[in-house]
Amino acid sequence: MLDVSQLRKVYGPDPNAPPAVADLSFTVAEQEFVCILGSSGCGKSTMLRCLSGLDSPTAGEVRLRDRRVTKPPEEMAFVFQDYSRSLLPWMKVRRNVSFPLRYKGVGNRAADDATEEALDAVGLAGKGDLYPWQLSGGMQQRVAIARALAYKPRVLLMDEPFASVDAQTRTGLEDLLLDVWQRYEITVLFVTHDIDEAIYLADRVLVLRAPAQIRHSTTVPLARPRDQLTTKQQPEFGQLRAELFNALDAQPAPA
Ligand SMILES: Nc1ncnc2c1ncn2[C@@H]1O[C@H](COP(=O)(O)OP(=O)(O)OP(=O)(O)O)[C@@H](O)[C@H]1O
Questions:
Q1: For the segment 6-39, what is each residue's pLDDT rounded down to a tens digit?
Q2: What's the farthest any 2 CA atoms get from each other in the chain?
Q3: For residue 205, which of 31, 214, 78 has the smallest C-alpha distance?
Q4: What's the gap in Å between 72 CA and the centre of ligand 1?
Q5: Whether the predicted interface score ipTM is above 0.85
Q6: pLDDT, tens digit, for every residue of 76-91?
Q7: Are 130 and 27 contained in the same domain?
Q8: Are residues 59 and 6 in the same domain?
Q9: Is 44 close to ligand 1, i.e. is its CB under 6 Å away?
Q10: Could you tell me if 209 and 167 lie in one domain?
Q11: Do 67 and 108 fall into the same domain?
Q12: Which residues are the signal sequence here (predicted)?
C-alpha cells in the first residue's frame, strides 16, 4: 500500500551535497506494522517527512495506494515525539483532537462522535474539558494519538512517539497502540531508537544506515497478542535483539 522507490533527499540548493536520504526503497503492506531503527542523524525523520508529503524528495517517489504523494495525503496521520509542540495549549483536549476533522470537512456531529470514540480508545474518556497542560506527559501523548485516530487514517506515521515518557507509561502506550492498530486496521510505520520496542511492536523491523538506506530487514515471528512479560521472555525475542543490535552496532557513526 505504501511504496517508497529510490527516494533521495539533499538539503539545500547544491544537489551534489551529501544526502540525508539516499536511494531508499521499501514497501509496506496493508495493515502491516513496520518499525524503523537507525542511529541518530541517519535520516529517519527526513524519510518520514518525505513519506508524509510534508517535504519533497530530491529524487525518487512515494506512492500511497498507487497514488504519488506530493502533499500530506488525507488518509495519513502523524504522531511526533514532542507532544508539547503538537498540542495547542489554549485549546481544550476535545478541541485539540477534533480540529483536524474540521479542516477535513467532517460535520460537527460526526466530528464530536469521532473525538469521543478516540478519547475513549486511549483511556481519556471524560478528560475532554481539560487543557493539555492539566495532563501528565503520557496523557498528553495519548491525546496526540487520539487526534490521529479520530482522523481515521489508513496509515499512521510515528516518529519516536514515546521517547519523552517514562518507562512504565511507555509500555502502556505500546500496548494501547497495538490494541488500536488491530481495532482500527491501520498500517503503521514507527520510528524508534529502542530495539526492544521495535521487536515488541512490529511485524517487520528495518534497520537504516546513514544516509537513510536499508541495512537490514527482519520479520518478527512472535505471536500476537503480545505481552510485555511473556513475549520478551521468549528465546526468539533475545535472538532478534542480538541480530538487531549487531545490525545497528555495525554502522559507522554519522559524520
Ligand atoms: N532542515 C534541514 N536542513 C538541513 N539539514 C537537515 C535538515 N533536517 C535534517 N538535516 C540533516 O539531515 C541528516 C538527517 O537528519 P534526520 O533528522 O532526518 O535524522 P534522524 O535519523 O531522524 O536523527 P535523530 O534520530 O537524531 O532524530 C542530518 O545530518 C541532519 O543534520
A1: 999 999 888 788 899 998 999 999 999 999 998 8
A2: 54
A3: 214
A4: 20
A5: yes
A6: 988 887 777 789 999 9
A7: no
A8: yes
A9: yes
A10: yes
A11: no
A12: none
